[in-house]
């Protein structure tokens, strides 16, 4: 029986290993494969919630680390939760804070109990543990809560990987125990570094706990991209078939296509908005760096094959002008386009899987998405 | 006969000295009193053209100085003119470049012929004259073109003021002669410093040339605000009754009310967007500085009496959080609100004049607009 209760995940189509699914959350149903927009500090950078809806955003991410430091989960809870605070009524996924503690904070001290660290804002001392992270995420009112895990640098020794995955597993058990909010779905995170055997072991460990979804953490941490691709194809099939599979922090448009091809369902990345602010734009014919002299006089839309607000109203020459003039509208129009492009890519991926033409779509994407304006 | 040809200005109501008018341009009719949004570098900072329409913006300003330097009027003309370049199909007014030459550029050398100066961007040498300024503005495809004038610092001697207004007058004659684009309306600019007699003389001089509109330049240049108010009430009546009267670069919400009360019709100022980016917000109960600690936990909308997107969707606490986090959405939501507030103020002013209750509206504004959150 496939219910439509909170947490149910229905596979509605499969083509090769690519999956077309539907996950029910307290704030609506998510059609997968899905790209989730990163809203680090309770805003997807340069975008309004209204615009996120317009481009078909299904899920917004919030960052436990950032929101805990500022403004603090108690203020957000007082104001009615993260949905209300940021004006987003669709599903919200929050990460556990672990990744930022390891990438942003300083003076970390890790014990079995949790992690002590200093804020990157003012150096103030903080402590995060599975229980505290769950408590923060529940106060935020998150629909999908990520287990508190330890993030591993790359490269790492076998010994480090083993310790890391064991601690992550023990922290998952504590995360699960601390979860008391029925409307929130807890996802477990498998680690295991870049070692196939340990990855599989970590996945088996994490997935031995019955949870509404599972994630792969520790990818896109500096490893060669071919290594990630290779591993994804081998480890994705080990993950439970009837649960959503989330690849954390990935990636480029091509990364998403490869990951979907390997059988993954959910993705998030700061890339589309971050590179947009630096003038790098994704199109169906490859990447464009809008600051280039060649666009100075170019009356064409950024991507003639794109139906977004930016492409329907403005020329490349105007976008270049805004970028060189350091105007806020540059960040806005570029972010809008790149996020639209990601959402459109996922829309087309879902349609291709449903219609049994995934392999053709994938191969087409492989050819076009890797181009850039150096060579054309 | 009051035609509706390009350039016609119809006074449709008057209440005390406040005027309710209608100016026809090649890109649509402007209802006055009007606040024009400043789009310095072919974008109103942090706003999209779609949003400008949504809040009832009637006219957008472009800056000849900035657009001449970057991207250059030839590129804009090649791309179909400023309207098309920036995606704004309503009326556009362009200034002559004079003000920026005197406030931004360095190494100015003024002769009868024009002004030589160095770009504030890269130090490159440029020359502007009435003929060159008209030519640039015509290439931009501006609906309202401002005559090229010399801007006077404050304070200035009687001798300086006299020389300045005489040169400005001779440059107006040359500006008029250089104008060859029938769809563009040329407005003359009166100078005259803060001296009543010279102001009147300059107005009489400028208005002796038959033009579709006249402006007061050289206000809001550092003089005491009470001096400007005093002069406006005395000199506005000297301006032609049946032509639009434009007060350049002014001002605060209260400044606009006073100026309308004195009989002026058109206004522009960077203030609403500039202070928005610094967290200062206008409301119907006075100014708010959103970064204050007192708004940390405040669930109220910025202005409960405002119907804008910002006020309908977000709390003061969220706006404070965005500001402290230096998020682009902070500049966006704040700019949106402040510009909406200005547009709303003008909408209400127009209605009050039409309905014969201007004095009541003016007195109400005088009481409320001067408050700020220091005292309540």
Give an overview in words.
2 copies of one chain form a homodimer. By secondary structure, chain A is an alpha/beta fold. The first copy, chain A, folds into 2 domains: 9-269, Queuine tRNA-ribosyltransferase-like (TIM Barrel), CATH 3.20.20; 280-375, no CATH class. Chain A contains 15 helices and 16 strands. Chain A has helices at residues 49-54, 64-69, 73-78, 82-86, 98-103, 130-140, 158-178, 196-207, 225-235, 253-262, 271-277, 309-313, 316-324, 328-354, 358-368; strands spanning 9-15, 18-25, 28-32, 34-38, 60-62, 92-94, 106-110, 115-118, 125-128, 144-146, 185-190, 213-216, 245-247, 266-268, 280-283, 286-289. In chain A, the strands form 4 sheets. Chain A has an 8-stranded parallel barrel with strand order 4-5-6-10-11-12-13-14, surrounded by 4 helices. Chain A has a 3-stranded antiparallel β-sheet with strand order 1-2-3. Chain A is globular. The model of chain A has no long low-confidence stretch (mean pLDDT 96). At the A-B interface, helix 13 and helix 14 of A face helix 13 and helix 14 of B.
Outline the secondary-structure elements.
2 copies of one chain form a homodimer.
Chain A: E1 9-15, E2 18-25, E3 28-32, E4 34-38, H1 49-54, E5 60-62, H2 64-69, H3 73-78, H4 82-86, E6 92-94, H5 98-103, E7 106-110, E8 115-118, E9 125-128, H6 130-140, E10 144-146, H7 158-178, E11 185-190, H8 196-207, E12 213-216, H9 225-235, E13 245-247, H10 253-262, E14 266-268, H11 271-277, E15 280-283, E16 286-289, H12 309-313, H13 316-324, H14 328-354, H15 358-368
Parallel strand pairs in A: 4-5, 4-14, 5-6, 6-10, 10-11, 11-12, 12-13, 13-14
Antiparallel strand pairs in A: 1-2, 2-3, 7-8, 8-9, 15-16
Helix pairs in contact in A: 6-7, 7-8, 9-10, 10-15, 11-14, 13-14, 14-15
């Amino acid at each position: 029986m496939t219910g439509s209760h909170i947490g149910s995940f229905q596979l509605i189509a499969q083509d090769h290993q690519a999956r077309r699914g539907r996950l029910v959350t307290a704030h609506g149903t998510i059609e997968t494969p899905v790209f989730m927009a990163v809203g680090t500090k309770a805003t997807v950078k340069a975008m309004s919630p209204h615009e996120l809806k317009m481009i078909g955003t299904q899920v917004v991410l919030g960052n436990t680390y950032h929101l805990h430091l500022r403004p603090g989960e108690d203020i957000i809870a007082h104001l009615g939760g993260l949905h209300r605070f940021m004006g987003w009524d669709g599903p919200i996924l929050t990460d556990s804070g672990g990744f930022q503690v390891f990438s942003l904070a300083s003076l970390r001290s890790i014990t079995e109990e949790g992690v002590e660290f200093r804020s990157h804002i003012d150096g103030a001392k903080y402590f995060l543990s599975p229980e505290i992270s769950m408590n923060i995420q529940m106060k935020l009112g998150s629909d999908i809560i990520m287990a508190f895990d330890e993030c591993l640098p790359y490269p790492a020794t076998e010994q480090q990987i083993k310790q890391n995955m064991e601690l992550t597993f023990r922290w998952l058990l504590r995360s699960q125990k601390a979860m008391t909010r029925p409307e929130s779905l807890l996802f477990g995170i498998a680690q295991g570094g870049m070692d196939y055997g340990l990855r599989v072991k970590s996945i088996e460990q994490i997935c031995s706990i019955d949870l509404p979804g599972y994630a792969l953490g520790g990818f896109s941490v500096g490893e060669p991209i071919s290594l990630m691709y290779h591993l994804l194809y081998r480890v994705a099939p080990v993950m439970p078939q009837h649960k959503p599979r989330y690849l954390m922090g990935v990636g480029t448009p091509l990364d998403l296509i490869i990951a979907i091809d390997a059988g993954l369902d959910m993705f998030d990345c700061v890339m589309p908005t971050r590179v947009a602010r630096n003038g790098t734009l994704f199109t169906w014919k490859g990447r464009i760096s809008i600051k280039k002299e060649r666009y100075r006089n170019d009356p064409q839309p950024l991507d003639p094959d794109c139906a977004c607000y930016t492409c329907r109203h403005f020329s490349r020459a105007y976008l270049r002008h805004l970028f060189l003039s350091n105007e806020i509208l540059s960040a806005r129009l570029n972010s809008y386009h790149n996020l639209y492009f990601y959402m459109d890519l996922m829309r087309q991926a879902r349609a291709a899987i449903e219609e049994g033409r995934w392999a053709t779509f994938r191969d087409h994407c492989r050819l076009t998405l890797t181009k850039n304006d150096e060579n054309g």
